[in-house]
Every structure is written in structure tokens, then in C-alpha cells.
Amino acid sequence: MGLFNKDIKTFDDLLLHGLQDIYYAEQQIVKALPKLIEKATNRDLTKGLKDHLEETKNQITRLDQAFKKLGQNPNGIKCPAIDGLIEEGDEIAGEIADKEVLDAAIVGAAQSVEHYEIARYGTLIAWAESIGHDDIVRFLTTNLNEEKAADRKLSTVALRKGVNRKAAS
User: Fold this and answer.
1) How far apart are the C-alpha atoms of 95 and 67, rounded to whole Å?
2) CATH number reported for the structural domain that contains residue 109 in this entry
3) Which backbone phi and psi does 74 adopt, to 5 degrees?
């Protein structure tokens, strides 16, 4: 089911479809993060991933509230983009024996997911604003800000906390 399916007839339908997409994505991330946490060896990386797992659960709760505001039941639709990013991360992490290089790969995989979420939330905010769903905009903006913060934390772990430096040596 792609973004341009025949069930989308109105801008409201498009917003709902986008919410269903990110809802599915967040649920898949909740399933995938524990695997990354288990494989990560850097203490700062492990803590950051654990923290973001809890944030992601809260993001799903906010999305539940957004669906409720629209009079819809929370429901996800398959998102090939997030499935592909998660699958790619799993494949790369499964191929790396060197723990320092593995940590760097995990940071990269996690940032790919964060960047997808940042793009999706930005689009959904613009759509919700255009329709006048200010209450939904607030939920989505909180989620977007958390995704941006998670991306910055991952960059800090990679650059300032030494994950990339250790992987390179």
C-alpha cells in the first residue's frame, strides 16, 4: 500500500494515511530497538537507545490521541520505508564482528530511522496545520522535537563520546 493509493481522495484522507504510516513505523521501532540495545557495547549508546525506546512508546500514545481527535481508531498501515531501514540495520549489525565498528553501525542505522521520522513528522505537521488541526499539530510537534533530540544525541555519541573514533582505530 503506497502513499498514492486509491483510498486517498481528500487532504483529510492523506493526513490520516500519513498518521497510519508513522503509527506503524513507531510500532516497528519499538520492536527493533531492543535488538540494537542488546548488540550495542558503548554505554552511552545503550543508554540513549533505552531512553529513546521509552520516548517512542510515549510517541505512540500521542499518536493514539491524534487518532482520537480525528474520531479514528489508532491503526497502522504497512510502511515499506521503515521496514527497509530496520531490515538494513539488522543486516549490517549481523555482519560486523568488531564491537567498536558495530557500535558505529548501530548509530548510523538508528540515525537513518530518526531522519525518516523527522521527515514524516515534518510533513504531517504541515498537513495538519493546513487543515486546521492545531491540537494534532501539538502532538506531532512534540514527537518531532523528540526525534530531533534523539538524532542530536546519536551524533554526540558518535562524535564526542568516541564511537566513531574507536571504530576507526
Assistant:
1) 39
2) 1.20.1260.10
3) -60, 130
For the chain, give the number of residues. 169
Q: How is residue 119 written as a grid cell?
A: 521527515
Q: What is the CA radius of gyration of the chain?
A: 17
How far is the CA of 5 from the CAs of 8, 20, 47, 77, 104, in angstroms? 6, 13, 40, 12, 37
State the 10-residue block means of pLDDT for the chain, 169 residues long.
67 96 98 93 94 97 97 95 94 87 94 97 98 96 97 92 88
| Tally of CB atoms within 10 A around 80 | 12
pLDDT digits (tens, 9 = 90+) for 56-80: 999 999 999 999 999 999 999 999 9
List the alpha helices (DSSP H) in 8-132.
11-39, 43-69, 80-95, 99-131
Report how far apart the first and last C-alpha atoms of the chain are (Å, whole number): 44
Task: Identify the CA nearest to 85 among candidates 108, 102, 104.
Answer: 108
- Residue 139's domain comprises 11-168
Sign of CA dihedral 121, 127, 129, 133: negative
Give this prediction's pTM: 0.93
- Whether 111 is in a domain gets the answer yes
